[in-house]
Amino acid sequence: MSKPNDLVQGTLDLLILKTISLEPKHGWAIAKRIQQISGEVLQVQQGSLYPALHRLEQKAWIKAKWKETETGRQAKFYSLTAAGRAQLEQEAENWSRLSAAINLVVETT
Amino acid sequence: MVWARRLGLRLQTVFRRGRVALRLDDEIQFHLNEQIAENIDHGMSAEEARYAAMRTFGNPTYLKEETRDTWGWIWLENFLRDLRYAARVLARTPAFAIVAILVISLGIGATTSLFTVVRSVLLKPLPFKDPSRLIRLYEHGADGKFPYNVVSGGVFGEWKKQSQAFSDLALVSGDGTEYGLSGTGGQLPEKVRASECTWNLFRILGVEPALGRSFAAADDQPSAAATAILSWGLWKRRFGGDPAILSQTIHLDMKSYTVIGVMPSWFAYPAQATQLWTPIYHEESAETMQALDDHEFIAVGRLNPNTTETQATAELSLIVRRLHDEHRDNPFVSDAANSRPLLEDMVGDIKTPLYVLLAATGCVLLIACLNIANLLVARSATRRRELAIRTALGGSRGRLLGEHLTETFLLSAVGGGAGVMLAYAVIQWFVATRQDMSRVEAIHVDGVVVAFALGLIFLCALFAGMVSSFSVRGDYILCSLQDSSRSYSAGPARVRLRKWLLAFEVALTVVLLIGAGLLLKSYERLRASNLGCITNNVLTMRFNLPDAKYSQPVQRVNFFEGLLERVRALPGVEAAGLGSAVPGSGYWGDGGFLVAEHPPLALGQAQYAITRWADPKYFAALRIPLLRGQTFDANQRLDKADEVIVSESFARQYFGDEDPLGKHLLKFGHAHKIVGIVGDTRFLIAKPAQPIMYFPMYDGIMTGGSLAVRSNHDVTPLALPIQQIVQQLDPELAVSDVLTMDQMIGKSTLDASFNATLVLAFAILSLTLAAVGLFGVLSYIVAQRTTEIGVRIALGAQRAEVLRLMLSDGLRPASLGLVLGLAGGAAMSQFLRDLLYGVPPLDSRVYATVTILLLAVASMACLLPAWRASRLDPVQALRNE
């Protein structure tokens, strides 16, 4: 149970920010959403989402609010802050640059 | 805005931690519930659904901890937890905690206070304007015996006229300038220490009077009206701090002076005791101020911005050299100049003692730290099993180390806090005790001192913690779990570490003991050294007859005779004498002379001796032995005075095998016949006797001197009736330095006794600490080896044998430390050389005494645990398993 390494951690942050960029979501919904979109490729252990969520909250990139879900239960909903939105743009850009670069390397050899 | 939100969140995680943690539980529970619900929807049984959900989620407890770690202040939380834990651990062993805190507070307190003194006195710049450009100037005597001689008025005049290197030069009279301050409105007259100075002194130092004005050039001339500036202390004490004192008239030596200013309270120059300043060219005769060979004064210069001290001194040297060449016939004209930074001049004498004391306190602190480390190692040994189990259960090495350091930090902080308070008290005491020390007024606690104390606390904690945590290394977990099944001896590594710590501690103690021994012995030597006269039950006091009232020699001689006659008639007085200065009271002055019967001296050669005056019964009163010849005749008065008495070393140095009696000394323009030879006396107790020539007191040259009164019992009650006699003879005459000879010697040996006492106190403290350390280590070793010893005894080992074994176990580190300490002490004692009197740095008796003392104390400390080991009941010892 070692901590996720930097690459994975940065990627997880990006995934979380992206996932809640459209509407506020609670933890379980975020996990579901990531799983859904990536299919079975991204095997994220659901629990490891929470340290990441709390870290992002401490950095004030996302904010949290306790609300009722559609089923009437209390859940903690996360949404992006202005700083978070800027961070998302930057990280998304970094990611595309990085993946493009890796692609280039992988495909030219 | 982002930072505000972050701060809010952080504060929340600090102050509402419990609530935030509950919310996290809710959040994770919600997640699991949702997953379980989904799994059930997919057709799993409730039980199955729960397990599946847990599987996909991971270990909730671990993840909660991970999450918590992302909250801010986790370090603070950890630290506070460690602190609580450490406090609880320490509270469980209160004796250990109290001893440790006490030891640390003593170490930190002593070191901090000495650091404060050293910093304030030696390191801080002088409180004058641009003090780095101020230098003290000296003449370099032509015979090379006085490379740092005081300056004569004539040489100063030439410097001032010709030198280009200084923005300004000032001249100040040295020690011994005194005025009789007449009483007004019923006050008694009093003698005040004063300083005559050129008008620009205060300007050069960059100091303005707190009240009134400074001297002007016009005040500093023979023809000017007499003016004076008061010290703050004198103004407050004698004149009630009344600002109306300005432009009022006071009487000094029965002449009128107008007070023009009052100096600020912190200002003290040239001496700590200076209470009054007068303009030097107004006070001194033109003759004195022009003499080239009358070395009397302190010269101070302020360097020009682009001149170095070396350049300036070279320039002054050139001027002196030219004067020397122009006056080849006068051997007392110097041939060069010398200089020192003013700060060094003012604190030079106390530099070595202060650094020695600081080093001693540093040793004490180091010993204290070693002792704490030692005690901690012993304790961590008893907690070994606990630590091993915690390591095995996953406590990270970092956390355990952190916990350990927190503990030493707590000890050090509490001890240091107490130490700082102690230091504050010590500094108050120091300042009160050493009012004689220059710059004593500059001593106070400031920010740097506080930072120093904090640094010490931190270093102590780190040192004690790191040293002792060598023994908390995780590598031995398995080992210690294994050997905890049977308690043989502890891992040999740990015992070795403790022994080394002890040896080091003992070595430092030995160094301190040697230092204390040398200083103490030299103090004893100093007190025991023979002044050359009787010092028991002798009272002395000084007085000076003002020129204004006693301008004629005959008036002075009448006063002297009247005074002696009345004092000798006083009941209880066994003998009384009058001299210009009694032995042990200082150098005062010397003079050149020629022997009429000898061939003339070669050009540039000089003969000189200390000059003293004495009445005929002075030698008998002080029991200075008259070796040959006789004392002065009763007719040796005024113009008829033509006799001289010389000291033994004078006779030896200037007459050798010749008989000095009947020869003539040329002095004061005429011949004096040598009528007697007296025993040598010392002008200061720490200085060897020098040649002295005594002239008849009744020749009327001297305007005052010291009255010495001997009694056959306690002489102090005589002080008052004698002062009353002086009052009757002249109500306006003040006496000063009313001291018994023993008090006077005590004053001049204050330094030595102060240093010796303090270093001795530190040494005793260290010895106690080392003994406690030895005792602790051996007790611990015995406890650890209980089973082994039990087995040995059961197998037939003799109890004496066991005792010997354990004793040697304890004494081995002590002996190693002793050897190291003796070597270290021998090296250290070279730095003490300046402070020693009559004791070589490698004095064998001191080293032998220290060795015996240390071995005795070490054996005492080891005996009890060793004896306990030899008394072990083998059955008990083995059953303990």
Keywords:
heterodimer, A: 109 residues, alpha+beta, Arc Repressor Mutant, subunit A, three-stranded antiparallel beta sheet, 4 helices, disordered N terminus, B: 881 residues, 4 domains, eight-stranded mixed beta sheet, 28 helices, 24 strands
Describe the protein.
The complex is a heterodimer of chains A (about 110) and B (about 900). Chain A is α+β, with helices and mostly antiparallel strands and about 110 residues long. The longest helix of chain A has 27 residues, at about 80-110. Chain A starts with 5 loop residues before the first helix and ends with a helix. Chain A has a single domain (about 5-110), classed as Orthogonal Bundle (Arc Repressor Mutant, subunit A), CATH 1.10.10. Chain A is built from 4 helices and 3 strands. Helix content of chain A is about 60%, strand content about 15%. Chain B has about 900 residues and is an alpha+beta fold. Chain B has 4 domains: about 1-70, no CATH class; about 150-320, no CATH class; about 350-525 and about 755-880, no CATH class; about 550-730, no CATH class. Chain B contains 28 helices and 24 strands. Mean pLDDT of chain B is about 85; it is low at about 485-490. The interface of A and B includes residues 31, 46, 53, 54 and 75 of A.
Summarize the entry for a quick read.
The complex is a heterodimer of chains A (109) and B (881). By secondary structure, chain A is of the alpha+beta class.
